[in-house]
């Protein structure tokens, strides 16, 4: 049986540059198990390790979308297909996907926050009818920050999508913060049969959550995910603790009834 605390040597299958500072690596992960919304610890010997959300996965592989912003991620950025990386996990509580079955699912994602929902949205795309409807608001800071361009096109064909840029103007995108467009989601047509997912930088989740509540959405229908600085991933080191909550164990996905106390 695999010891989930033990890093496993995995080979990089593919390396894709997404933006100037973000990239996606496809890694052969063997029999490591993962659920939508979970994260893994990626490490390079003698350099360190960092927690990264699984942005997609399939039989024997996982994708990780990474921003080069620190010692470990900068080193991962230098790797190529064929190189080795060490992985432990997957960890944390993912999205309550079974609860979304047959529902109208609304996903509000900002920037790299699109990564933790990508595999779940792809599941909805591949399993037609799993969700009653899928409504996506995905926002990026500017044209240079757009992630998963090919995937966004696929989602646009299958789902109700609103893609936004905070300030740039670009064909196919609207200008403004994601919170501005929440009122355009036809919640009144959904009756009681919907769930809302919010993921992105803490300030974006804070204001998107407030806007949803203002629109009359019950807090228990809202789900958020946040990657706080994880370290051990098993609730021992206290690095990710907010008050008495260990994000690595109880999250990264939380219901808004609890999350609203953690975001502020």
Structure explained in plain terms:
This protein is an alpha/beta fold and 264 residues long. The protein has 2 domains: 8-91, Beta Barrel (Elongation Factor Tu (Ef-tu), domain 3), CATH 2.40.30.10; 97-259, Nucleotide-binding domain of ferredoxin-NADP reductase (FNR) module (Rossmann fold, 3-Layer(aba) Sandwich), CATH 3.40.50. The protein has 8 helices and 15 strands. It has helices at residues 71-77, 97-100, 115-126, 149-158, 187-190, 202-214, 247-250, 256-263; strands at 8-17, 22-28, 39-44, 48-58, 61-67, 84-91, 104-110, 133-140, 160-165, 174-175, 194-199, 222-225, 241-242, 245-246, 253-255. The strands form 3 sheets. A 7-stranded mixed beta sheet has the order 10-9-8-7-11-12-15, with helices on both faces. A 6-stranded antiparallel barrel has the order 1-2-5-4-3-6. The radius of gyration is 18 Å and the shape is globular. It starts with 7 loop residues before the first strand and ends with a helix. 41% of the residues are buried. Its cofactor is [2Fe-2S] cluster. This is Anaerobic sulfite reductase subunit AsrB. [2Fe-2S] cluster binds at residues 232, 237, 240, 248. It holds the Pfam family NAD_binding_1.
């Amino acid at each position: 049986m695999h010891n989930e605390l033990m890093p496993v040597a995995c080979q990089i299958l593919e390396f894709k540059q997404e933006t100037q500072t973000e990239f996606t690596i496809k890694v052969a992960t063997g029999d490591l198990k993962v659920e939508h919304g979970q994260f893994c610890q990626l490490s390079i010997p003698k350099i360190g390790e960092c927690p990264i959300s699984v942005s997609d996965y399939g039989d024997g592989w996982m994708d990780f979308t990474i921003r080069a912003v620190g010692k470990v991620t900068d080193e991962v950025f230098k790797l190529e297909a064929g190189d080795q990386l060490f992985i432990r996990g997957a960890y944390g509580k993912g999205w309550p996907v079974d609860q979304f079955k047959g529902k109208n699912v609304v996903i509000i994602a900002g920037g790299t926050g699109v990564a933790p929902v990508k595999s779940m949205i792809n599941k909805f795309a591949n399993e037609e009818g799993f969700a009653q409807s899928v409504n996506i608001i995905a926002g990026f800071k500017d044209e240079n920050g757009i992630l998963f361009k090919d995937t966004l096109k696929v989602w646009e064909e299958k789902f109700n999508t609103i893609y936004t840029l905070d300030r740039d103007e670009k064909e196919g995108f609207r200008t403004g913060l994601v919170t501005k467009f929440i009122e355009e989601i036809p919640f009144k047509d959904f009756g009681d049969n919907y769930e809302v997912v919010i993921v992105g930088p803490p300030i974006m989740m804070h204001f998107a959550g407030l806007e949803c509540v203002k629109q009359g959405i019950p807090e228990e229908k809202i789900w958020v995910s946040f990657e706080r600085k994880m370290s051990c991933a098993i609730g021992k080191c206290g690095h990710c603790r907010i008050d008495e909550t260990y994000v690595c164990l109880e999250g990264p996905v939380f219901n808004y009834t609890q999350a609203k106390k953690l975001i502020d």
